[in-house]
Design goal:
The chain is built from seven helices and no strands. By secondary structure, the chain is mainly alpha-helical. The protein has one domain.
């Protein structure tokens, strides 16, 4: 299934993060993701994390069977909390059933 297991069997985090979301998987998922609301002009706050990094965090949790707080933010590209929030938002938006 899109090569997700390839990255999960290897323990080196640097290699895992590259392989967790291969280009062919990302090309299938990206068009299904809801558009982000525009940022406020005044006090825009922090830039949101990249969607691909959030998906990488979600897949990392699923493959490694770790808790959201154990996601290595430096290697994945976002915190586990951010990945969890995106999972919640994308689930509410109905992204996952569209993948099948």
């Amino acid at each position: 299934m899109w090569g997700l297991v390839v990255g999960c069997c290897v323990g080196r985090i640097g290699w895992v993060t590259v392989e967790l979301v291969p280009d062919d998987l990302w090309e299938r998922v990206a068009p299904l993701l809801p558009a982000r609301p525009p940022r406020r002009r005044r006090y825009p706050g922090r830039l949101p994390a990249d969607d691909r990094a959030a998906l990488r965090g979600i897949v990392y949790v699923l493959c490694k069977s770790v808790s959201w707080r154990d996601v290595p933010a430096e290697q994945v590209g976002c915190s586990g909390v951010t990945a969890w929030r995106r999972l919640r938002d994308w689930t509410e938006a109905g992204v996952w059933p569209q993948l099948h």
